Amino acid sequence: MPTIGSWFKPFERLARQHTALISGIWVVLLLGLWFIGTSGPTKLFPPPSLAWEGFRDLFAEGLVRHIASSLWLCLQATVISILISLFFAYLSVVPFFRPVAIMLSRMRYLPLTGITFYLAMVVNDARDMQILVLVVFMSLYFITSLLGVITAIPQEELDHARSLQCSRWEVLWEVVIKGRLDYVIEVLRQNLAITWMMLVTVESILVAAGGLGVLIKNSDKFMNHGRIVALQIIILLVGLGIDVFLNFLRRMLFRYSKI
C-alpha cells in the first residue's frame, strides 16, 4: 500500500483515493492562504465574505443569462473556426497549398488590436465583429496545432495505407482525416482555453449583448473587488466544465484513442 513518502517520488503511480486526497489538501491550503491573506490589516485579496456577496449580487442581476451569452458566442466562433482550420490544415498535405497554411500559422504572432482595426472596416454589426475576432484568433492557433498533428503522423501509417492500394486522396481521408479525429477534439480542448480567456476583451466590443466579459469589465470600472473575484471563479469553473465535457466526449466517441 502506498505511503505518504510515495507522494514525493518521481513517476510514482497513485490510486485515485490518494490523488483525490492530495487534491483536497491543496484546495484546503489555497483556501487557508485566502483567509490568511485577508485577515490582516493589509489585505492581499478581497475576503471570502465579500466574494460571496459578489456571487449573490451577480446571480440577482442575471448571471445565468450572461453565462449563456458567453457560451453561445464561444460556440458560434468555435464551430466556424474549427471548420476553417480543418480545411486549411488538411489542404496542407498538398504542396501547392502548404505555404498558405504555414503563413496562416505564422500570423498568430500578430497583435489582436491591429487585426480588429481592419476587421472593423469589413463588419458593421458589433455581434458579428465579436464572432469574427474570435474566429480569426482561434483559427490561427487551431491551424498551428493541427499542422503539428498531421506532421506527427508516422510514415509507416501512410505506407501501410498505400500498400492496401489506396490512392493518395484515400490515404488523406483514411489516415489523416478519419484516423486523427480524436486528435481534433484534443486540439479543440487545448486551444479553447486560450479563447475562453479572450472573452473579457472580445465581449467589451458590444456591451449590450452582455456576457461574463461585460460583467467583469463593469466590476473593474467601479472597483468592486468582491464581484471581480467571484467572476474570476465563475469563469474558471465554466472553463473547467467545458474542458471536462470535451475530454468526456473524446473518450466516449473514441474509446480506443491512445492520447
Automatic annotation (TrEMBL):
Domain ABC transmembrane type-1: 67-246
Spans traversing the lipid bilayer: 20-37, 70-97, 132-153, 193-216, 228-249
GO CC annotations on file: plasma membrane
Membrane association type: Multi-pass membrane protein
Keyword Cell cycle: no
Main location class: membrane
Keyword check for Cell membrane: yes
GO biological process, one term: transmembrane transport
Entry's localization field: Cell membrane
Keywords: Cell membrane, Membrane, Transmembrane, Transmembrane helix, Transport
Protein name: ABC transmembrane type-1 domain-containing protein
Species this protein is from: Neolewinella lacunae
